[in-house]
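#help-structures
NK: newbie question, is this the right format to request a structure? protein is Dihydrodipicolinate synthase family protein
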Amino acid sequence: MSSVTFETGRTALADVVAIPVTPFAEDGTVDRDVYRALLRRLLDGGITTVTPNGNTGEFYALTPEERRLVTELTMEEAGDRAVVLVGVGHDVPTAVASARHAREVGAQMVMVHQPVHPYVSDGGWVDYHRAVAEAVPELGVVPYVRNPLLPGARLAELADACPNVIGVKYAVPDAARFAGFARDAGLDRFVWVAGLAEPYAPSYFSAGATGFTSGLVNVAPSVSLNMIEALRSGDYPAAMKVWEQIRRFEELRAANGSANNVTVVKEALASLGLCRRDVRAPSKPLPEDERATVAAIAAGWSL
C-alpha cells in the first residue's frame, strides 16, 4: 500500500467512523437487502467511513461465513462512496484470514478487535497485532484498545515493526489515561479515534482524538455529524449541546455493563421501520416497557 493510500485511510479515521448493525431476517439469517438499505441510508446521510464486523455489528455472534458476507455486502454497497475498515479478530489464523479476505475484496483498512483471551501479556499483544499487520502490509491497520493496562510504548513498538499501523481505536473509559497513552505512543504518529462514541468524544478530542466511532449514527447520521463539526471547529459548548441530546439514548446503551448496547440501536431502527429488533445471544431484545422510551428518542431526532 502506498503512502498516498495510507493518507486516505488516515483522513477517513479522522471522522465519524460508523459501525453498522447487522440486521437479521425472521429466520435468523443475515438480512442482506436490509443491510444494504441501512448502509445506503448511512452513505446518503453523509457518512464516509464504515466498519463492518464491529461490536455494534454483533461481530462475536456472527459465523465466519456471515462475517465474510457482511464484508462483501459492505464493499459492494459502499463502492467509492466510503472508506471501509473491516473488523477482524478471534485467534491469529482467523484474524489473518479475515484481513486477507478484506484485502481481496478491496477494503483499505482493518480494525483488529482486542484479543479475547483470559491471559494477555503486553508482549503477546504486540505479537498478535504484528501477525495480522504483517499479513496485509498494503492495508492500514487499526488496533482496538480496550485494555487499560496496555502501555503506550507497546503501540510504538508495534508501529516500529509495522508501518501500516496508522490509527488506534481507543476505548478505555478514562480521558486522562487516553491522553497519557497517546503521548507515550506518539500523539502525531497515529490517528486517534475515540472508541467509546459520542459520550466520550468531547473529552477525548480535547486530549488529541480527531475521530470517533458511532453506533447511534445508524439511527441519526445528522446528529453524529453535528457533533464532529462542532469538535473540529473547537466549539465545545456546541458539541456538548449534541451530547445532551444523545445522553439518555447512550445511557440506555451503557446500562448494566453495556448489556443493551446493540439492542437499543436496533430497537430505535425498528421503531422507525428500518429493520427488525432481533439480536443474537448473549444480547437480548429490550423489555416492552423500555421500547417506548427508545422510540420517542428516535422520533425526536428524525424531526
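mod (FA): yep, format's fine, and the C-alpha cells are attached above. Strands lie at 16-18, 49-50, 83-88, 109-112, 140-145, 167-170, 191-194, 211-214.
NK: thank you!
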